[in-house]
TrEMBL record:
Name the record gives this protein: C-type cytochrome, methanol metabolism-related
Signal peptide limits: 1-25
Superkingdom in the source lineage: Bacteria
GO molecular function, one term: heme binding
Organism listed in the record: Pseudaminobacter soli (ex Zhang et al. 2022)
Domain Cytochrome c: 65-128
Amino acid sequence: MQFRKLGSVVVLVLASMSASGIAIAEDTAEKAKAVKEEDGKWFDADGNPTFNIQPDGTVDWFTFSGYRRYHSDCHVCHGPDGVGSSYAPALAESLKHIDYGTFLSIVAEGRKNIQAGKESVMPAFGDNKNVYCYMDDLYIYLRARAVGAAPRGRPPKKAEKPQAAKDHEASCMGG
């Protein structure tokens, strides 16, 4: 399932479920295990996008792309490799407790938190193609970091970019 295929109602329902206090089980390496591949993108047993890292450290294209996109658009607030900052939370930790739909909703629509008199705002990126077109990639990379499958730093090796990723990028970016 990709973001562009999700209806806004589904995303809003998932976000509402999370916000209403319905517990989301902690993600683990076992739950994130890649069991199915479609056009170079990997999915877990529940159909959520996930990573596929080979024993020699080669990451799938989408994990690598997520690393690049994260360090292009997200690390300024959330710190390098998703470890957080004084300004924004550690996404490598947060993704242990955020499901795919909630992640998409937060990135697309933004979020505002007020705790102990401190306000933090995650801006909406639903209109930013440099983020929107790569939300699955971002999720996959951060999920790999959250479950300890991807170390800090640039992945040493990557799989080739699949044609489906090239086609999606051209379509989404308007090329």
